[in-house]
Amino acid sequence: MARDLAIDLGTANTLVYMKGKGIVLNEPSVIAVNRKTGEVLATGHEAWNMIGRTPGYIVAVRPLRGGAITDFDITERMIRLLLQRVGVSRFTRPKVVICVPSAITEVERRAVTDATRRAGASDAQLIEQPMAAAIGAELPIDEPVGNMIIDIGGGTSETAVISLGGVVTLEAIRVGSFDIDAAIQTYVRREHGIAIGERTAEDIKIQIGTATPMPNERGAQVRGRDLVTGLPKNIMLTPEEVRFAIDEVVSQIVNSVTRCLSKVPPEMAQDFLQRGMYLVGGGGLLRGLAQRIEKETDVPVRMSPMPLEAVVLGAGHCVENYQVLRSMFMGARR
C-alpha cells in the first residue's frame, strides 16, 4: 500500500516527506537532459554537479524559477523520477501534499497539481509555504496570537502573520537567494571583468556573503574566465564588495518584511515584541540577515531550529492528518 507523501517543490531544493518515516529525500531541484534524445541523464545532486560543465547537447536545468514551473514537461519528469526513488510505482499511487509559494497564480497552481498527478499521485493537495513553515517551526498557529514567519527560498521571499489557523497579513515577492547569486555574478563581471558561474557565485555567498558587517571577516579567492583574454583568472573578493553587490536584493527582502509588519492589526504588535519573528528557508542562512531585519524593524528575529526542513515538516504534519489539510487549507484547484 502506498504511503502518503509531502513534497516541498522548491526552486533550489526538493524535499520529500513520507508518512510514518519522515524526510526520505533532500536534493537540488535540477535535472540533466540530453537534447538530442530527450533522455533524462540525472537528477538531484548528480545533475547539480553537471551545471556549467556539460556539452552543448546536454542541459542541466532548474525547471522551477521564482517558485513557479517554467517547463511543465521537465518538471513532470523530475517529479516522476523523485516518486520512483521513494518507492512509488504504477501499482502504488499515494496521496501527495505539495508546498507552493503564495505568490504563484491560479494557472501555476493548476500546473503543479497536474504535473504531480501525471507523475503518479492519486491525489494532489496544495498548502502554501508560509503556513507549512509555521507548522514545521512548531508555532501555535491555532491560538489567538500573532505568529510571524519569514520564509526566504531560492526564488521567493514570503512573510506572513498567522493566527487561529489563518493568514492575517501576507507579503510575498519573487526575490530570493538565487537573486543574491545573480547579483554577485553581475558585480564580479562588471567590476573585475571575469565571468563566473552560478555555482561559484553560490560558494562566494556561503563563504563570505553577509547582510551586515560581521566580526572576523576575511576575503576569498575567486576563479573565473577573463572577459578580455578568455583565459582563467584569479581575483581576491572582499566581504565588503559582496555586501555591496547584494545590498539591493537584501534590501528588497527586508522591505517586504517591513511592509508586512505595517499591515498587522495593532493588537498583534505586542505579540511580536514578546515572541519575535521566525526565520526559515535556505536564504535565511545568509550571515547577518537576521540581525539586519531585527535592526530595521525593532522586532526580535529567531532562527527556526530546522530552517531548511521546516516547510516539508509542516506539510508532513498535514500528511499524517490528511483530512485536516482538506478541511483547513487550500486544497487542489480542480
Automatic annotation (TrEMBL):
Compartments, record wording: Cytoplasm
Sorted UniProt keywords: ATP-binding, Cell shape, Cytoplasm, Nucleotide-binding
Pfam families: MreB_Mbl
Main localization of the protein described in the UniProt heading: cytoplasm
Keyword Cytoplasm: yes
Molecular function as annotated in GO: ATP binding
Family that this chain belongs to: Belongs to the FtsA/MreB family.
Protein name: Unannotated protein
